[in-house]
Structures are given as structure tokens and as C-alpha cells.
Amino acid sequence: MEGTLWYVLTGTRGGRNRIRILQAIDERPRNAHQLADDLDLDYKTVRHHLDVLLDNDIVDKSGDDYGAVYLPTDRVRANWETVERIFERVE
Amino acid sequence: MSLWLDAASAAATLNVVLLVALVGIWARNYLEFRSKHPLGLLVFGLLLLAENCLSVYYYVIDPQVATLLRSAAPVAGRAMTFVQILELAAILFLAWVTWD
């Protein structure tokens, strides 16, 4: 999991925005529209990043497609020190 | 013979273009995060870029030696083209996952 987090959040082109999404949903679970508004990102960009995060078991969604709310997975919660170390680098 | 040399030239050139883009992404991420993951990718990318710049020089810019060696040992020349194309496939794959 640690390696996945470093790779998905710091090794790819979209890492920076995925970190912002993870920070936002850690603060408060949100749906894709809210994330797009709150982070001032394109809706499609947010959907793409959420799909990557879902694929890598970093976020979960609760509810059905439209309006589904995203939140960090238990697996990420268990590795939260790594996530915080990554967050610190972005300050 | 010249077809094999052309294929190697094209693959080496594409490799340089792709690697410049990838090294750009990894360098930006390293500068931002200062973590070892993008650093490892950056160092790997730079070394592979150096190798491919050498190939571009050897195949495209000054192909005299390559032509001479390839006519002396055509099988070795084809093998080198094959190596270049395998590298292109590897880099394309890496570009696909990094572009995300």
C-alpha cells in the first residue's frame, strides 16, 4: 500500500490533484460535483482522478453513480502516516 | 538493410521525445515532493535518455559508422534495431501509466 500511495500520488502527472482530492475528502466526504467546485477543477478531471483512486483502493464510494460520496478506504486509513508524510511535502 | 537502419533511427528518435516528456513530469514531481519515488524515476529516465541520445547520434546524425558496421554484420545490426524497438515499447507503456 505504501508503494502504491507514493506512486499514485507523487509518481504521475496527475498526482498533485489527486493529493488535493484526498485532502478534501479526508476533511469531509464529498461527491464529484462538490470536489470539482471546491477544488476549482474540471468535473471530468475529478471523475478521472476518482477512478484512478478507486482502482488503487485509495478511495471508496458510497451511494450510486450520480451524487455518490467519496471517502478514504479503511486500507488508506491504516496507512495514514504515509499519506500525511505525502501531504507534508506539498505545503 | 537501410529499412532496418530507418526503423532503428525512428525508434531512437521517438524514445528521445517520449523520455524528454517523462523526465519533465518526473522532475517537476521530484521538485514538488522531494520524495524518492519520483527521484528514482527521474534518474532512470535521465540515464535512458542519455543512452537514446547516443543512439540518435549514431543512427540519425552521423550514421556512417552504423552503416559500415551493419553491412559487416547485418544480423547484429538487426538485433540492435530490435533492441531499440523493445525499448520504445517499454517507454510507451511507462508513458501510458505516468500520463494518468
UniProtKB/TrEMBL annotation, chain A:
GO terms for molecular function: DNA-binding transcription factor activity. CDD domains: HTH_ARSR (cd00090). Pfam families: HTH_5. SUPFAM superfamilies: Winged helix' DNA-binding domain (SSF46785). It comes from the Archaea. Residues 17-61 form the HTH arsR-type domain. Signal peptide: none annotated. InterPro entries: ArsR-like_HTH (IPR011991), HTH_ArsR_DNA-bd_dom (IPR001845), WH-like_DNA-bd_sf (IPR036388), WH_DNA-bd_sf (IPR036390). This is Winged helix-turn-helix transcriptional regulator. The lineage of its organism: Archaea, Methanobacteriati, Methanobacteriota, Stenosarchaea group, Halobacteria.
TrEMBL record, chain B:
The keyword Transmembrane helix applies. It holds the Pfam family DUF8036. Keywords: Membrane, Transmembrane, Transmembrane helix. It comes from the Archaea. The chain crosses the membrane at residues 6-27, 39-61, 81-99. InterPro entries: DUF8036. This is Uncharacterized protein.
